[in-house]
Each structure stands twice: as C-alpha cells, then as structure tokens.
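User: Modeling request: complex.
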Amino acid sequence: MSPETNACRLMSVICLWLTLITGFFLGLFFFAGTELSLPVQLVFLAMVLLSATRWTGLFLLAAVQLHLFFAEPGRRSSIQSPSELLFVLATLALLMFGSRFATLQAAGRLTLFSMVRAVWRFLASRDVREASPLSTAVWKSLLGILNNLIIRTSLLLLILFASFMLLNSIEISGNLRDWAEQLPGGERQAKPSPWFMVVIAAVFVILFELAWRQKTTSQARMYLRSLLLKDLYPEFRMILSRRMVLRRKQLRDARRITTPPAHNTQKPLP
Amino acid sequence: MTWRARWLCLFAAVGLYLGLLRGQPVLALLSMSVLLWIGIEWSLFLWRMATEFSRIRGSRLVNGSEETGRFLWSGRTIAIEARLFVTRGSFSAITVARDVMPENLELLPDDLDNKYPSEQILAGTASEILFRYSARPRSAGNIFLPGFRMTFQDPHGFFRTERFLECTQSFRVLPAFTATRNSQTLVKRINALPSHGLHRLQRSGMGSELLELREYVPGDPPKSIAWKVSARRDKLMTRQYESEVPVRLQLFVNGSHGTRTGGFGCRLLDQMLFVAASTARSAISNGDPVGAILFDEQRSWRVPAAGGERGFYRLLEALANFSVNPSPVPQRLSAAMMTAAMNVCHERFPELLDVSVNRVPFTWFPILPWSRRQFRNRCRLAAALAEVYKISTQLQVQLMHDDYMMAVYLQHFLTHSGWSWMDPVVPKRGRGMNDGLPAIQQISAAMTRAVGLAKDNEVFVVFADLLDCSKAITHLLPSVKLALAKHHRVAFICPSPTFKRPTKQSTVASSDNVEDLLFAAEQLNLESEYQKLKRELGRLGASLSISGEEQAVHMILSQMNLARSGRTGVHS
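Assistant: Request completed. Predicted assembly structure:
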C-alpha cells in the first residue's frame, strides 16, 4: 500500500471527525434558545452523521437556510453579534469538512472499515516506535494534507470576512414592504449594483477565457467540426438519407436478381 | 462543475436573494459566503489546470526498462513502475492517476487491501506520483499500454476534469510453454549415434547403422560390398545402411472465429498455442526442426521448418502474431456495443466527450426523452470516432444514422482498444450451431498443400476445434489418407472448452450445483464426440488427443518417436 493511499485514508478519518465535531457545535448554536422539538434535533444530527456514507451538505445548507428564513428577524442593521459570525463560520466549516470527506471517500473508493483499519495500523506502528520508512512517508504525506487543510480553513475565514465587508457596503432593507416603500427613493440600494455587475461580469469573462485556453488541439478541432456540423446538418442529413434509400434499393434489386422467383421453383422440370 | 457545486450555487443564490430582500443579514452572509467560496474554488481550480497539466510528464518501466516493442511471456509476472511528475512546481490535491490497462493484462493485487494497484490517489501536494504494481499477460499477442487517465478535482469535489496523458508502450507477448521431460532414451541402442537432429529410419539410405545385407546389384558402390559374407556365400553381397533423416514437425494451427471467441487466456486458440509451443520446445530440444502453417478464414501463413533457438523464437513470434485478433465479422449494432464503446471513449479520450466542445446539432426528432438521450450519446460518440479516425464530417453524419457503419467502426474501435471477442464485440454463439464445413475445408486444404511441400518422414500435428465440427469430418479424411500414404504421421489435437480432458470422475457431477451439472454435461458431450472422432481417425491411422493437459504434448512426442524409429503403430 502506498503512503499516499494510506494518508488519504487517515485524512478521510480526520475529516469525518471534524465533520462530526463541527456538526455537534453547529447543533448547539442551532438549537440554543429555540423550542424545536427533540425529533427535529435528532434529524439534524442524523443528517450530520449521514455524512459518513453520503454527502448531505446540500440538505444541511438547505436546513440552515430554512431555519434562518423562518427564525431570523428582519432588521435594517447588519451582523450584530460575534455568535452570528461564529454560526455562519460553523456552517461553512461543516460544509467544507463534509464535502472534503465525501470527495476523498469517493476518489479513493474507501469504506469505513478500510479507514478504521488504516488508522489502527498507523497507530500501532507509532505505538511500537517503528521508525519504518513507510510510516515516515505516511506521516509526511499526512502533514502535507493537513497543511493544505489549514490553508483552506484560513481561506474560509477570509471568504467570510470578504462577504461580511461586501454585505456591510450594501444597505439592507428591513423587510419586503419597507424595501418596496423605499423603492422610489432607493438610490442607495441601487447605487452599488452596477459596480457589482461589472465586477462579476469581468470575473466571469476572465474565468471563461482561462477555461477556453485550456482546450487541447483535438478539442479545438472537434469544436470547429461541431460548429460546421451544426450549420450544415440538415443538408448532410438530406444527402445521407437519399444515399441510404438508394443503397437499400440497390440491395433489394440485387437480391431480386440472385434469387429466382417463387413461381419458377414450383414449375415441374421438363 | 459537478452537480454538488451546481446545487449549492442554486441554494446559495436563492438564499442571498431572499436574505437581501427580507433584511436577514445572517442568511445573506451565509449564502454569499457559499457563493464566494465556490467562485474562489473555481478560479483556483482553473489556475491549477492551466499551470499543472501542461507540465505533467509520465514514464513507465516494464521489467526495469522503458523501451517499447520488447517481448513478454504469456502467463509470466511482469513488474511495472509508473512515474508521473511535474517539470516545475508540484501536484495539488486531489489527483487520481490510473495506468490504463488492456484486457490482455491481468492486474495482480499487491496486498489484500489494494484492489486497484494501477491507481494512485494524491490527496495532498507532492512533486511526483509513483506507483508499482505487478501484472500478468493473459494470452499471446499484443499488449498496448496507452497512458494514464488522470482525474483532477478540487479538494471539495466542486469541480472535476478528466484528461488523458499519453505514454504509449507496446509489447509482443509470446505464448507460454511447458518444458516436458526429454523423451529421448538415454540407453544406447545403436552402435553409431547420428548427429544431433538426425534419426535412424529403417529404410535404406546412407546412414552409419547397418540395416540388412542383400545381393549385389550392378551400380551399388563397391566399398559397400561385404567381402567376408560374399566369400562365405559365394556370391557378392552388399551392405545396406539405414537412412538417417531429420524428423520434421509440422504444426497446423486453425485460428478460425470459433477459436478466437472468448476472453483472453480462455480462448481455444490460447490452449492450442500453449500445446503447440510446448511441443515445439521439446522437438527443438531433441534437434528436430519445427515448422508451422497458420490459417484462418482469411489468411494463411507458412513458417518454414527450422531448428535451434532462433527457429524456436521465430516460431513463437509467428504464433504471437497469429494470436492477435483481426477485425471481427460485422454484426448488428446493439445497445451493449454502444455502451461499451462509450465507456472505452470515457477511459481513453475523456476530453473528446466534453460537452463544451462536442456539441450535438439540434433536431426535432427523436421526441421521446430516452430516445433523445440515446441519440445525443450516439452523436457524441460519432464525433469522438471522427476525431480519432480522422474521418470527414459527412462520414460522421453517416455514423450518426447508419447502423451498419456505426457497428463496423465500433467493432474496430473496441478490438483495437484491446477488447477480446466477447459480447458485445462479437455476438454470442452456442456450440454445435454449425456443421463446421468451412473450417474442415480450410484444414483439408492446408494439409494437402503441406503434403505437396513436405519431404520424407514428417509429423503433421493439426490443432483445430474438430469437436465442434465433427459432423463434417468426412471431408477431412481424403487429405489425412494422402498424408499417411506419403509416410507422414498425422495427429490431431482438439482444444477442450472446459480446459479439462474428460475422465470418469469429471463426467459425473460432484454435486447438485448447477455449475457442476453443466460441467459434467459438457464433459459427457465432449467424451462422446471425442470417442466418435477417435474411432473415425484411428481407422485410418491418425491419432487424436484433447489439449489442456500435458498428455497432448506427450502424445505428439510419442508420434515423433514412432516417426524416428520408422515403426508403424497408432498411439493416442
């Protein structure tokens, strides 16, 4: 077994634990001070636990969004308390760890049993202080993955900060009715929108250009061919159908020539 | 972008919209963070793909060598070491690399845990991906290693792209053989041993061993006059010496469609090649030259008889070439064939199936969603084939609509991708569905031709699936009679579909299990056909055996011993 595969298995286990721990903390945030019934809490925890086999991040996000949609009061001000920021961070972290675990599991075709066995072997080799090259290599690979994970988590913090700053720059309306009332004079809300549109469009153009430039020569050839086919398809189709009809007719004629007619075979020989 | 990212984007966009409208900052913040996160992951992924893939290089060592075009042996384990590296920078997470293996190469698991030894997953960062594994060629023929299929993903599974990194290597696989015990007796039975590869033949000739004494006939060489005996008998007597001739072994291998059908290593042809190679090894060890006539429905090759190691390897190479499956007989297009070709295309040419470049022209028909999906898949496959085989756009449209042409191209594509002749490449065919007349005619023609080219005292060994065409055996008998009349020995080796000779134990089912019952029934059928054929051929003086075990090789060697001694007799 290669060190990379072993490290992948160990990382999957770490991600699974991080998912469960984050889910537990999110649950604490989620249900603190609410009157949600126990079954709802259990369903939430079950969804977190389901991450062990299936990626349920989408449903978790939907559940959190629904909860916020119904439970969060509409207000003019922005984020007020750090606990709200922590709540968003916990949700994002849960999504990140869960998706990472699911991706590793799918890419490595890992089962829970194989992951547990990898951890057991790794720990056993550490216990007896075996400084084998394999365990050292696994440890090295694992450190690399953990390093990557830390970078991504830091990135998540940056993303949260950027989103926070972006939202603070926009005047959020109190609710739908207030927003509708403010519409005639709602210049402040509408003011940043063009800038956002321009920035988003520019980013998309750059990204699409980057994606297009990555195409290989054969892909470019195929794209040109598909464009040509798109334009000339009806003509080609018409020519081809004519040819196919003609070929069928020729085959039918050839068969008629080679096989004697039925009435001749019935005729008695002289 | 994967479906996971698409759904997340949709939910996040809706959440952001509602959060901004309703003035719910936490909902808006969460949704915007998710959108921003996916956007940043996308840009990072694109940047990674732009910088990383073009710098990836691959190399592969097979048995410690990077050379292509070398020889491998069927059934022998080979060690493969594949290495992927980037010329500058390092691999990022997550990269899955897989060395694409043809069907003729059997992967051997390195330990109990790893079911996919030719695959390597990189979850962190590294400068190179290295993986070692063992494999074993299943049958003689060709092995083509095209390269590495690489899957790049971002760490969260939002974006994924598949690319193929070419690293081609091709090998010629020689058939396996077994070294049988040397059948030449060690007891010296004769006064003067002939040189290596020459054998005594109890006919008059210019050998060194005395055969008989006879009366002098004018024209006999004076030095062969036996003076003492002449003095005793009072008339001139001359010595008659034995002939010393090489015993040539002529192998006839029939590679008709029926013998090529099946998975690599399980074909009837593989059995025949194994026995042929083993026999050739033994014969060449005894100094006898070995030649071969290889034929199928379309082609026929003659390998001139030769001895020594060079002759043996030349024969093996010819057998390996013959073992490569040609393009099969065209058959009807089936859904299974389309699915198989699509899978191969996904494996070998993933970038050609990218929907952003492989666009399908709009048509109103077919209307039904399932049919429409099938048509779209067919269009995409036709475009990929058009790019692979460099055919015109007009032919591409023909592939989209002409079933016959599509079937021909798909069969060709699958065969050249290393698929064996099994369903869906060739249709399933039951045994005994034909009378085998064409195959018998081919064998008969090959034998007649060989008799015309043969010299004295040859052993003809015919490897053919006679059990499948026993009904037409009478068409073969004239050529067998001709060969026997020319003092050649003739032996037939029939491959067994069960790889076992029928015995008393094997013809009785060991349990009520369906597989055991079927096996016993097959063995019974085989036994009855074998006995019928044996009786028919034995009446003429030809031998018959079933391959799959060493008995077949021993039978051929005993025939060669008979040919050496010049005795007559049937031994099977």
